[in-house]
Amino acid sequence: MRGNNHKIGLTINSLCKITQTALLADLSYFNYTEHNKWDLYNILQLIHTLIPKDEMELLDLLNK
Length: 64
Description:
The chain is mainly alpha-helical. Helix content is 81%, strand content 0%.
């Protein structure tokens, strides 16, 4: 099972980097980007769904 968690972690990390790059491109070249705000929203939603429920509950407890 650790292998699958590692793959999910790498996937989430890659999606975060893609989102960061897209946001930076928006700030630097706002007239020339090939994505829109819905693309970024959808990536963030995907990241959220990839985080296991147990992990989200743990994060919620840590934030209290």
